[in-house]
Hints:
The protein has helices spanning 9-18, 34-37, 92-128, 134-170, and strands spanning 29-33, 48-55, 58-61, 69-72, 79-80, 85-89, 173-175, 180-185, 200-204, 208-215, 227-232, 239-247, 253-255, 260-261, 273-282, 293-298, 310-311, 317-325, 332-343, 349-353, 355-359, 366-370, 377-379, 391-393, 452-453, 456-457. The chain is of the alpha+beta class. Strands 1, 18, 19, 20, 23 and 24 form a six-stranded mixed beta sheet that branches. The protein has a six-stranded antiparallel β-barrel with strand order 2-10-15-12-11-16. It is rod-shaped, with a radius of gyration of 42 Å. The relative contact order is 0.16.
Amino acid sequence: xxxxxxxxxxxxxxxxxxxxxxxxxxxxxxxxxxxxxxxxxxxxxxxxxxxxxxxxxxxxxxxxxxxxxxxxxxxxxxxxxxxxxxxxxxxxxxxxxxxxxxxxxxxxxxxxxxxxxxxxxxxxxxxxxxxxxxxxxxxxxxxxxxxxxxxxxxxxxxxxxxxxxxxxxxxxxxxxxxxxxxxxxxxxxxxxxxxxxxxxxxxxxxxxxxxxxxxxxxxxxxxxxxxxxxxxxxxxxxxxxxxxxxxxxxxxxxxxxxxxxxxxxxxxxxxxxxxxxxxxxxxxxxxxxxxxxxxxxxxxxxxxxxxxxxxxxxxxxxxxxxxxxxxxxxxxxxxxxxxxxxxxxxxxxxxxxxxxxxxxxxxxxxxxxxxxxxxxxxxxxxxxxxxxxxxxxxxxxxxxxxxxxxxxxxxxxxxxxxxxxxxxxxxxxxxxxxxxxxxxxxxxxxxxxxxxxxxxxxxxxxxxxxxxxx
Length: 470
């Protein structure tokens, strides 16, 4: 199957989450790091789920409940080839029974020969007997012939029994019909919950898929159709991609441990919770081994195969700008400028011009040649995006902001101005003009109507002016 470059999975989720996103009740516009969209950096780390490589096809071996297993050769976790002996039935009693049936058949055949001989002798005597005695001979001969027919019938039944017994003894060895790995042996024919199970289950070699488990508490984190990345536990450079093809909600797995694995490698402290198996259809299973243990993560952004900075197309906006005059006709010219809504160093939203490179036809993602880097944060554009609007960063409250050193920024809260000179959060904004004046909070479409100075509304005619940044 052709390897997919998935960049729209997270985008779809983000679009749903960003619907109606605006500055409301002091909450800023959500932004996400470009690194996350590119699947790189700490911001891109996602939760991991334990997984194992299994076969898409399984073969179930049942046993005859009327027979006793003499010896089991198969072992869980062991590779087997087609034709290998899985187990052998105990056929000692069947052998004894077979010998008995053969002796009975010999006796029946001997008795029948004796009857045939008697019939032959009586026929000879009848031919020599008088007319009055012939009737008596005929009655005796008919009786023996009836006995002979009955013996013939019983001999045929006994021969059939012997044939079946010989087959039972000859087929004491149960052979594997396929090559693969023995993944389960249920001696009593049931699982831990008492559900009926085959005696032996074999995962066939061939097309592989990955089986994982997800806990009931984080079940909503995965969905059928979600793109995932498969990580090798032993080689960090080996990864595979795939799509969640099924989540088996009908067969929960009861356990005392939550199989959910965090990025730190620890386990949840929840106990006695239910987990559910899910399956990943692989884009390629090259170099994967049946039974290999792996990690499964959501594929949140652009494929690792795509170098550089890439973002989904719906983050990119375009505006028409004056392009001057045509030298020949004198007609007005216009040009299209691409931009994104990006968070600046003050935790405010701004229109950031970007230079676009190629667009990936498989995902629609644009390559960004300049304008933003992996360290930037961008917003999903909608009518709530305004210049100077507050933003909420997609990381914990104590995380660094995009500038990397503005510890006073409190993502997701009302206070998004950095500390300056040791002042408490929000007491003073960072100077950004040449004369050291305080930069106002810009509202609306960029004018200064209703600008908020230190928490006090100041009329436009009373607001100071500042020299342009040079």
